[in-house]
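Task: sequence design from structure.
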């Protein structure tokens, strides 16, 4: 096995940062193309929306065990296999007209994203130590959030000029480029391989699920990210089919809402020293207040400006809650941070995919008022979980 050479450490680090946003790119780049996919493939909206949900489910499930596998079999080999299969799967997605083949490829892409992201997350722990490690891990979090921000913006232009297939050709090309550069400049960074023991994993997962604060934290992460994915599932259809705007406009809207998510994350870091539960509850109350205002405003204004303005503010609160709880859950078990991070991400994305798709399927949002209804369901669920946390703490 080729090990990472010291002289290539910097460029290998840049390549690791380039792989990290892959999950966000794979989920968000084709959002402006979803209405066109439904038309060209002769499928109802729900079938196209399902391509996003099944990706998230497979991505979430993979994170349950990916950490242990890359600890046992190495980071480099897993990354290279993932990138190679990415190329193949994206090309197949772009060239088929069969929705079930697309479903199969999206499941595979979710699995590959889980392995690739976990492997590269471990890369920074292997290569760097102390403050330098903290520095690169903090940058990694920001880089991860860049994918969902820029992807729909790029996807809107690709859709307008080349059609929905171009999104997946671009992803295939990006994966191939990374594969070739990794082959030349990167290498294995794992110094000591751990045995892969199912019994150990079960013991760790059992301990984590029994920790109620950790358990509720994972649920809150899932509910927070569900707000983002809920809009992603229905937003492009509303903007393009109901409001009559172009794919490029839908891409700009996703770009704006991506910045809302990042803003919430930065606010979470800025207020990191504030009392934890009070600031989360305040964010939830502000969130519900904004949703109620969105309800009221829907009877007076139902256009793209009011829709995006309210969605932006609501997504800021969702990003704030997610950032705080995700950081809390990862740090909750410092001796098993990799497993805790994988479990948190896995549960959060499974909850996200199930709840966001379920709400869209039931409500079938077509106008601003119905989008507000979906947000309201998620906000009330968050309030319920936070009330449970408060109740339990009152009885400890």
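Answer:
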């Amino acid at each position: 096995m080729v090990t990472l050479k010291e002289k290539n450490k910097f460029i290998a680090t840049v390549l690791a940062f380039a792989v990290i946003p892959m999950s966000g790119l794979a989920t968000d780049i084709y959002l402006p193309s979803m209405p066109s996919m439904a038309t060209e493939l002769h499928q109802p909206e729900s079938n196209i929306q399902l391509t996003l949900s099944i990706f998230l489910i497979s991505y979430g499930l993979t994170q349950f065990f990916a950490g242990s596998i890359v600890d046992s079999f190495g980071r480099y080999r897993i990354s290279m296999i993932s990138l190679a299969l990415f190329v193949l799967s994206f090309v197949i997605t772009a060239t088929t007209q069969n929705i079930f083949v697309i479903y199969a490829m999206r499941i595979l892409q979710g699995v590959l994203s889980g392995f690739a992201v976990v492997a590269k997350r471990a890369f920074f722990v292997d290569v760097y130590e102390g403050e330098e490690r903290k520095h690169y891990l903090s940058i990694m979090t920001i880089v991860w959030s860049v994918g969902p921000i820029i992807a729909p913006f790029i996807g809107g232009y690709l859709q307008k000029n080349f059609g929905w297939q171009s999104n997946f050709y671009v992803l295939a090309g990006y994966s191939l480029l990374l594969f070739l550069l990794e082959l030349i400049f990167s290498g294995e960074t794992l110094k000591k391989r751990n045995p892969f023991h199912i019994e150990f994993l079960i013991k760790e997962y059992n301990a984590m699920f029994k920790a109620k604060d950790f358990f509720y934290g994972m649920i809150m992460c899932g509910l927070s990210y569900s707000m983002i994915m809920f809009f992603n599932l229905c937003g492009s259809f509303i903007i393009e089919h109901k409001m009559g705007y172009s794919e490029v406009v839908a891409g700009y809207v996703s770009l704006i809402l991506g910045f809302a998510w990042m803003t919430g994350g930065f606010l979470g870091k800025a207020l990191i020293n504030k009392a934890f539960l009070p600031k989360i509850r305040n964010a939830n109350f502000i969130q519900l207040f904004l949703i109620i205002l969105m309800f009221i405003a829907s009877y007076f204004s139902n256009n793209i400006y009011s829709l995006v303005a309210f969605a932006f503010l609501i997504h800021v609160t969702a990003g704030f809650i997610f950032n705080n709880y995700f950081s809390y859950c990862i740090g909750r078990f410092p001796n098993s941070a990799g497993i805790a991070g994988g479990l948190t991400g896995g549960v959060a994305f499974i909850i996200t995919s199930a709840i966001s798709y379920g709400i869209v399927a039931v409500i079938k949002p077509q106008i601003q008022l119905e989008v507000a209804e979906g947000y309201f369901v998620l906000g009330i669920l968050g309030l319920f979980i936070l009330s449970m946390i408060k109740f339990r703490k009152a009885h400890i």
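The CA atoms of residues 39 and 45 lie 9 Å apart.
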